[in-house]
Every structure is written in structure tokens, then in C-alpha cells.
Specification:
Shape: elongated
Structural class: mainly alpha
Order of helices and strands: HHHHH
Number of strands: 0
Radius of gyration: 17 Å
Strand content: under 5%
Helix content: over 70%
Distance between the termini: 21 Å
Largest sheet: none
Length: 92
């Protein structure tokens, strides 16, 4: 990976981590510390819980941002993996 790709990957990871921490705090406030610990161990739990309760909690914008970051990161990872695989195929 080149420097630009590493920086973009790091920025996307930090954005996703920030959203996860925010959702863990909201989860702890709403359902207790045990749910926050479970959310830390299984990050998909606060993601789905956040979408289910986004209207009631008023966090649709946060969940939309988190979803966008995850989709961009997934697409970026697929593109970088494909580029790396293609460059490995044509080595003389």
C-alpha cells in the first residue's frame, strides 16, 4: 500500500471507531454497561441497535455517516485488494 492509501484507510478507520465509541456511550446510557461491553466485543450489535433506535434517539445522521464510512471502506478495500491481485498476476 502506498502512503495515500494508508492515510485514507486510517482516516476511515478513525471515523468508524469514533462512531462506535459514540454508539457504545449511547448504548450504555440506554441499556446499561453490560450492553456496552457486549457492543465492544461485537461491534455489529451497536450498529444494528443504533439503526433500530435511530429515530427515537435522533441519531439518524450519525448512523448514516457510520454506514457511509463502512461502505466506502469496504469498497476501498475491495479495490485495493483487486489492484494488488492484478499486479501480482502479471509479474514476469
Amino acid at each position: 500500500m502506498c502512503g495515500t492509501e494508508m492515510i485514507l484507510s486510517g482516516v476511515l478507520t478513525l471515523c468508524s471507531l469514533g462512531c462506535l465509541i459514540y454508539m457504545l456511550i449511547r448504548l450504555a446510557q440506554e441499556k446499561g454497561a453490560l450492553h456496552a461491553v457486549l457492543g465492544f466485543l461485537f461491534p455489529i450489535y451497536p450498529f444494528f441497535w443504533g439503526w433500530v433506535n435511530s429515530g427515537r434517539l435522533g441519531i439518524v445522521d450519525v448512523m448514516g455517516f457510520w454506514t457511509a464510512v463502512m461502505l466506502i471502506y469496504t469498497g476501498f478495500t475491495v479495490a485495493m485488494t483487486a489492484a494488488a491481485a492484478q499486479s501480482m498476476m502479471f509479474v514476469p
